[in-house]
Amino acid sequence: MRYPGGVWVGIVLDIMANTISCSSLYTCAFARHHEKRIAFRGPPYNWPYMLKRPWEIVSWLWREICWFIQRGLYGYSGRDLWSLDYYLTTWLPPALRELALTVHGHPPELTIEQWQQTLNEIADGLDAGREWFDEMDNINAPPEFTKAMEQLHRWFWSLWD
After folding, report:
1. Which of 19, 26, 116, 145 is deepest in the core (most CB within 10 A)?
2. For residues 114 and 155, what is the distance between their CA atoms, to the nearest angstrom?
3. What stretches of 110-142 show up as alpha helix (H) in DSSP?
4. Closest CA to 150 of 126, 133, 116
């Protein structure tokens, strides 16, 4: 199908209409170039290499655009699903701290101060879990993380403002 804005506009419109997915399009278009590469996060780290291979820059930029559109449409992207546990620990602690600062309601069993303290403890425990995941120097999760997960399980349906 031809689009007046060119092929890239057509691809973006097809993605937004859910007729094709970024991952299947990426697999078809760029699979030959990336069969033996390891996926990396962030901008390309070796610019001289990338400048000699402009298709790598286009490929990287295409993935970033796809993930941006997916986050806007679905709230998460295919990149986030690679390590969903880590992705959740990157945005949930700051969100819980913000909720603790702007809280207007609380569970009936707790006072507002107790609720704010609980939210901050959960956020700190999730941060400890992410640090443990980054280092992986110990098989057992830190006790702060275990306690935070228990509290998150207990108060999950009270995470509202």
Report:
1. 145
2. 12
3. 112-135
4. 126
What is the mean pLDDT of the segment spanning 44-67? 80
Q: Where are the alpha helices (DSSP H) in the chain?
A: 7-16, 22-30, 47-52, 54-74, 78-81, 84-101, 112-135, 143-155
Burial class (CB in 10 A: 0-12, 13-18, 19+), 77: buried
Cα(93)–Cα(41) distance, integer angstroms = 21
Tokens 């993605």 map to which residue? 15
What tokens appear for 3 in the block? Answer: 């689009």
pTM for this prediction: 0.62
Give the integer Cα–Cα distance in Å for 130 and 136: 10
Task: For the chain, give the mean pLDDT.
Answer: 77
Contact present, 158 and 107 (Cβ < 8 Å)? yes
